[in-house]
Amino acid sequence: MARRAAPEINAGSMADIAFLLLIFFLVTTTMDVDSGISRKLPPYDEREPPEMPPIKERNILRVLVNSQDLLLVDDQYMKLEDLKEYAKRHIANFGKEENLSESPEKHVISLQNDRGTSYEMYIAVQNELTAAYNELRDEEALKRFGRKFNLLDEASAKEIADYYPLKISEAEPVKLK
């Protein structure tokens, strides 16, 4: 009796197909990139910085966050929910209240964290301060141009951003008491 040979599958091109599939998936797959916190840093300059004129105490909004994630704003304990409204009042005071800034151009927000501050609290404080600027810019853009800040053309957006400049000074974290 004659023996039949077992049928074979030609696998010669299988490696080529697997390689092409691998290339296809590598090329078409998108990688999520964490964008982090959006802050524009000033360019590095080797020259000595010029003497800065002194800043009046009333123009500085001091925000301290301790290791228990408690918020101290201008020497008063404050809830995180109240920070945005207080920052808006400070920035857009225009000299009305004596203990708040003279004008949006002269204000500075000084933010300092304890080394033990949680990352969640740090981000939450950053979000509240950024939200204060965004709301002020939206209000001014609606008043001047009838549109929100993020919908303005470049020249109008620069005008509003110059009117309410983002001035957050972050001091290096220290061990607060």
Task: Please write out the topology.
Layout: H1 14-28, E1 60-65, E2 71-73, E3 76-78, H2 80-91, E4 108-113, H3 119-145, H4 154-163, E5 168-170
Parallel strand pairs: 1-4, 4-5
Antiparallel strand pairs: 1-2, 2-3
Helix pairs in contact: 2-3, 3-4
Q: Which spans have pLDDT < 50 for at least 5 consecutive residues?
A: none
Main sheet properties: 5 strands, mixed
User: Alpha-carbon distance between the termini?
Assistant: 97 Å
Averaged pLDDT = 86
N-to-C order of helices and strands: HEEEHEHHE
Give the C-alpha Rg: 28 Å
Number of H- or I-type helical stretches: 4
Order of strands, widest sheet? 3-2-1-4-5
Strand-residue proportion? 5-15%
Care to count the β-strands? 5
- Structural class by helix and strand composition: alpha/beta
Indicate the percent of residues in helices.
25-40%
Short description:
With 177 residues, this protein is α/β, with parallel strands linked by helices.
Descriptive report:
By secondary structure, this protein is of the alpha/beta class. The N and C termini lie far apart (97 Å). It is elongated. A hairpin with a 2-residue loop joins strand 2 (71-73) and strand 3 (76-78). It is built from 4 helices and 5 strands; from the N terminus they run αβββαβααβ. It has helices spanning 14-28, 80-91, 119-145, 154-163, and strands at 60-65, 71-73, 76-78, 108-113, 168-170. The mean pLDDT is 86.
Features:
alpha/beta; single chain; about 180 residues; 5 strands; elongated; 4 helices
